[in-house]
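Figure 3 (text version): structure tokens given as input.
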């Protein structure tokens, strides 16, 4: 469980994070979404005890990160893949961490294998790694202590489509076994397929949170296009359905698809398109985060 309560961070006159409150439950993946500069990294750094909050609290399993004994055994974090020492090989990096956190060295090899960095890749210095390889190494490092919580800042950066799919499967499996995952991204499509819940942030504040269904509740409607726009417009009007035409002659109707379809059928209007209105998660995310100016 991750609990963030009234968390704020000011840097001089910039408020990077402003009164954020949210929680991530075991068994779930939470997508932490927001445009560049929204305050995601700062929040994750505060949860992981790397940046002190100005006000508010962040706890993992009820305890502040800094007060957890051997935190890597409870919380796996990937906050900055470029922070790894470039002169060490992937294997040395993990072996060193394994020793520091008290896990057997063979677990380092198992993790390298799991993230696809076994063999030759493990023996190359990290400075020769691509960003995607660094992300994989960072994920291996985060998992090394067999934690129950994962906090990953933009882990999909630098991963190819196969790598992104691999990561999704890994995170889903982790959560399905009872783990808690907080996963940030500035791109909805990177987290949409794996997240159970979303915390959407903009300008340092939480602007929406919940499941996709929660976020989209009340934003329903039906998009409909007829072969003859005038005939369809007349059919919708005759059925008393409120319809807004667009420039192409299609309509967004404040009614479900069945009612719209029936109205068209009753008037003999031929439909060429009938679907939920285009107010999907992506549109919602863009409209919630449209203004990218940070709060001063
Ligand atoms: N150490 C710092 N000193 C001053 N300002 C900072 C510092 N760290 C972050 N900020 C500012 O805080 C705001 C939030 O930054 P943060 O990196 O948390 O956003 P983000 O959502 O993670 O964005 P990105 O996706 O670009 O990393 C930005 O305006 C940033 O410039």
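Below: residues designed for each position.
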């Amino acid at each position: 469980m991750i609990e963030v309560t009234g968390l704020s961070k000011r840097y001089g006159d910039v408020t990077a994070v402003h009164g954020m409150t949210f929680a991530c439950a075991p068994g779930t993946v939470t997508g932490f979404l927001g445009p560049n500069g929204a305050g995601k990294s700062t929040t994750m750094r505060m949860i992981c005890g790397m940046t002190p909050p100005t006000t508010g609290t962040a706890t993992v399993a009820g305890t502040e990160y800094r007060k957890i004994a051997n935190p890597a055994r409870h919380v796996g974090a990937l906050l900055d893949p470029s922070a790894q020492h470039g002169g060490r090989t992937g294997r040395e990096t993990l072996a060193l961490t394994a020793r520091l956190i008290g896990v057997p060295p063979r677990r380092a090899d198992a993790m390298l294998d799991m993230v696809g960095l076994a063999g030759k890749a493990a023996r190359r210095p990290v400075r020769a790694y691509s960003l995607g390889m660094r992300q994989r190494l960072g994920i291996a490092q985060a998992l090394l202590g067999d934690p129950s919580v994962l906090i990953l800042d933009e882990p999909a950066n630098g991963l190819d489509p196969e790598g992104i799919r691999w990561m999704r499967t890994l995170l889903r499996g982790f959560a399905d076994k009872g783990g808690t995952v907080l996963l940030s991204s500035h791109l909805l499509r990177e987290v949409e397929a794996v997240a159970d819940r979303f915390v959407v942030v903009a300008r340092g504040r939480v602007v929406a949170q919940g499941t996709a269904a929660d976020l989209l509740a009340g934003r329903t409607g039906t998009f409909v296009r007829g072969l003859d726009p005038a005939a369809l417009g007349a059919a919708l009007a005759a059925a008393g359905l409120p319809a807004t035409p667009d420039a192409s002659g299609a309509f967004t109707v404040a009614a479900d698809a069945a009612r719209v379809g029936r109205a068209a059928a009753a008037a003999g209007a031929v439909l060429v398109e009938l679907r939920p209105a285009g107010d999907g998660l992506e549109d919602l995310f863009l409209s919630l985060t449209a203004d990218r100016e940070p709060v001063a």
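Residues 70 and 187 are 33 Å apart (CA to CA).
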